[in-house]
């Protein structure tokens, strides 16, 4: 099988791809923390492009459109550990913490090599070999550990992780001019622009008709 993915719980997984490349378009509901064990990942956003090699650790913020290209390299498969940092989990983590700024970001975040983060993610590997169900309390501890380490090594990360707001209504023209190339359901485009599906369709048609008429 060219592609395999193994979950130790719904928020922690390891994936392995041995084909030529794997390409997908996404706007994740959760922040996705990724440790790339081998291979290469290229992430293309509307205004930014990132390339990560083996050993890289990065986070794809939630609700950000991106094309993700995973490629085996140097005779090794594309292999990565990924941890979903859900809003529910983050709300629980930050419930007793004060955070100054909650501005969020639209860019993929790259983390410099750090022994604490490396140790945390490496420690997950043996768990994928377990035959028995992975204890939920242990998974919670590992996710909490990862969040705590991210806060220790990146003082700006709270502005992303502690921002629980849904997308607000934004200028549709600017958004679609930047992101029209992404193959997403209309419901997703509506959500990302702060609109219901019906409102998105209505506003999009108004914009399209006005442009066709030269208005």
Protein architecture, described:
The protein is built from seven helices and ten strands. The chain has helices at 87-94, 115-122, 136-153, 158-161, 172-179, 186-192, 197-212; strands spanning 3-9, 12-17, 22-26, 31-38, 40-44, 49-52, 57-60, 66-71, 78-85, 109-111. With 215 residues, the protein is α+β, with helices and mostly antiparallel strands. Strands 1-2-9-4-7-10 form a six-stranded antiparallel β-sheet. A four-stranded antiparallel β-sheet has the order 3-8-5-6, with no helix packed on it. The protein is globular. The protein folds into two domains: 3-161, Sandwich (Jelly Rolls); 172-212. 32% of the residues lie in helices and 26% in strands.
Features:
215 residues; alpha+beta; 2 domains; 6-stranded antiparallel beta sheet; 4-stranded antiparallel beta sheet; 7 helices; globular
Count of discrete domains: 2
Residue share in helix: 25-40%
CATH fold-type name of the largest domain = Jelly Rolls
Look at the structure and give the CATH class of the largest domain: Mainly Beta
Sketch the major β-sheet.
6 strands, antiparallel
Please state the overall shape, judged from the principal axes of the Cα atoms.
globular
Q: How far apart are the termini? A: 53 Å
Q: Rg from C-alpha positions? A: 19 Å
Low-confidence stretches: none
Order of strands, widest sheet? 1-2-9-4-7-10
Topology:
Layout: E1 3-9, E2 12-17, E3 22-26, E4 31-38, E5 40-44, E6 49-52, E7 57-60, E8 66-71, E9 78-85, H1 87-94, E10 109-111, H2 115-122, H3 136-153, H4 158-161, H5 172-179, H6 186-192, H7 197-212
Antiparallel strand pairs: 1-2, 2-9, 3-8, 4-7, 4-9, 5-6, 5-8, 7-10
Helix pairs in contact: 2-3, 6-7
């Amino acid at each position: 099988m060219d592609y395999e993915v193994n979950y130790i719980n719904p928020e922690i997984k390891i994936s392995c791809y041995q084909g030529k490349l794997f390409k997908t378009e996404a706007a994740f509901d959760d922040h996705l923390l990724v440790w790339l064990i081998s291979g290469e990942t290229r992430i293309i956003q509307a205004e930014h492009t990132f390339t990560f090699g083996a050993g890289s650790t990065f986070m794809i913020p939630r609700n950000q459109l991106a094309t993700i290209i995973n490629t085996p390299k140097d005779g090794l498969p594309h292999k990565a550990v990924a941890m979903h940092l859900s809003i529910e989990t983050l709300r629980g983590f930050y419930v007793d913490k004060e955070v100054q700024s909650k501005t969020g970001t639209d860019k993929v975040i790259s983390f410099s090599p750090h022994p604490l983060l490396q140790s945390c993610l490496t420690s997950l590997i043996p768990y994928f070999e377990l035959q028995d169900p992975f204890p939920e309390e242990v998974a919670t501890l590992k996710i909490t550990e990862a969040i705590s380490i991210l806060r220790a090594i990146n003082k700006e990360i709270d502005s992303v992780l502690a921002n629980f707001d849904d997308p607000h209504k934004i200028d549709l023209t600017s958004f679609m001019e930047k992101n029209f190339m992404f193959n997403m359901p209309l419901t997703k485009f509506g959500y990302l622009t702060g609109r219901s599906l019906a409102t998105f369709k209505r506003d999009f048609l108004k914009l399209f008709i006005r442009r066709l008429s030269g208005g």
